[in-house]
Amino acid sequence: MTVSRLEEGGALFVPRSGVSWQTMLADLALILFMVTAAAMADAPTKPKEPSAPPPAAAPEPPVQSEPLAVWRFAPDGPALGPWIASQQPDPRQQLTITLRYNPGQQAAALAQGSALAASAREFGGPTGARARIILEPSAQEERLEAVAALAFDQNAGATPP
């Protein structure tokens, strides 16, 4: 690069280089690409091992909507069978029976769940025939608590496998 003085005003004149910075950057990027491609070509290839099958998906809990009607066991209240018979029948409804028990009451909860499901089948028609039973251990309950709810749940119309 040469520096020269203009004759008239005495200002400095610096001639520009013929290559701009964008061209130099593109050249460096191309060189980097070529070096990387050459290194990848020289790398040994590993034989593909058969991959393990994907893990089985965990079962999703059933989706529950807001209940349309709720039955709770009470000594002076109606039994589950007559209560479900008094509800408007709809094949899209799902009856969910939830039993909360203390850890020592699991056998009693299973027996009561079976009895409630049998009562629902007897009086409830198609809705009672597909009753879903949920057992929940609870240290807060002093006694076995039984609650039944009718709702338009996601899988209510599906036939059991």
What's the story with the biggest beta sheet? Answer: 4 strands, mixed
Distance between the first and last residues' Cα: 85 Å
Mean pLDDT: 78
Kindly state the number of beta strands.
Answer: 6
Category from helices, strands and their pairing:
alpha+beta
Please estimate the helix content. 25-40%
- What is the N-to-C order of secondary-structure elements (H for helix, E for strand)? EEHEHEHEE
Quickly list its features.
161 residues, 32% helix, two-stranded antiparallel ribbon, alpha+beta, four-stranded mixed beta sheet, single chain, elongated
Describe the structure.
It contains 3 helices and 6 strands, in the order ββαβαβαββ. The chain has helices at 21-42, 80-85, 106-129, and strands at 4-5, 12-13, 69-72, 94-101, 132-137, 145-151. The chain is α+β, with helices and mostly antiparallel strands and 161 residues long. The protein starts with a strand and ends in a 10-residue tail after the last strand. A hairpin with a 6-residue loop joins strand 1 (4-5) and strand 2 (12-13).
Helix and strand layout, with pairings?
Layout (H helix, E strand, L loop, with lengths): L3 E2 L6 E2 L7 H22 L26 E4 L7 H6 L8 E8 L4 H24 L2 E6 L7 E7 L10
Task: Produce a short descriptive summary.
It contains three helices and six strands.
